[in-house]
């Protein structure tokens, strides 16, 4: 197998991928892509509606996004895609807090809709958020891929590619909970909530553009499975191979197991 290098390009089904030298280079390219999509959406329709993933792997992208000039954030509505049930917004691992720190404060979009998962009725919160998502067309989703191949918190063997819902309460996979510990968000697995509210697969595939940012060697197995495993809920990210509007941004580390 030849070594994957910066500039390598891959396709699988309808999905396309590009490889960059580093997470920082990947982040800059993804930021330029997002900025262009947002500018075009606002120019065409007066507004843009964007879903943005959270997590450590997305930091090079969102930091670069803050450096992009002439992006009409005053016309952009932002959603995030998951949140732990029972976590307060002030908790260090809260995805609401992540969005506030990395999107709301530096970019100042027109509106940011937060998942309020510290509610007594998470099912009602999932329905509320779904209604917000369905109010108007979505222009862009900025995805990641988990170490177990999940997208948002649609876990292996739980993901439903034909889910009629756009947001629901799910049980977290053990590997997803372990990933959160390894990334430093919780002291141990027992501290990680067992449930989360997540956007479903159909919600993630609804936007006009699907951008997938996946840096780091720890994601290499999941990236390889996304390209080669059968398209099924066993590896939820494989559904991206059926999306002609899906583009993956990889670095040499995350693409290391792909065949040139």
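^ structure tokens above, recovered residues below v
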């Amino acid at each position: 197998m030849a070594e994957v290098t910066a500039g390598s390009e891959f396709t699988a089904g309808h999905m396309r991928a590009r490889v960059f030298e580093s997470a920082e280079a990947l982040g800059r390219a993804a930021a330029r892509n997002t900025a262009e999509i947002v500018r075009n959406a606002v120019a065409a329709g007066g507004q843009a509606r964007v879903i943005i993933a959270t997590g450590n792997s997305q930091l090079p992208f969102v930091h670069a996004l803050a450096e992009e000039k002439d992006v009409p954030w005053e016309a952009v509505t932002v959603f995030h895609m998951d949140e732990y049930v029972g976590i307060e917004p002030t908790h260090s691992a809260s995805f609401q807090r992540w969005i506030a720190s990395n999107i709301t404060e530096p970019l100042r979009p027109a509106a940011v809709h937060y998942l309020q998962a510290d509610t007594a009725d998470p099912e009602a919160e999932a329905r509320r958020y779904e209604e917000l998502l369905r109010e108007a067309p979505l222009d862009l989703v900025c995805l990641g891929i988990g170490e177990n191949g999940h997208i948002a918190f649609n876990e292996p063997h739980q993901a439903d590619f034909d889910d009629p819902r756009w947001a629901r309460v799910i049980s977290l996979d053990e590997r997803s909970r372990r990933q959160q510990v390894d990334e430093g968000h919780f002291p141990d697995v027992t501290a990680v909530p067992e449930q989360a509210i997540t956007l479903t697969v159909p919600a993630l595939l609804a936007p006009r553009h699907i951008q997938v940012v996946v840096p780091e060697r720890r994601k290499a197995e999941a990236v390889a499975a996304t390209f080669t495993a059968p398209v099924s809920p066993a590896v939820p990210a494989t559904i991206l191979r059926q999306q002609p509007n899906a583009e993956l941004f990889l670095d040499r580390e995350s693409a290391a197991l792909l065949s040139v």
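The two ends are 7 Å apart (CA to CA).
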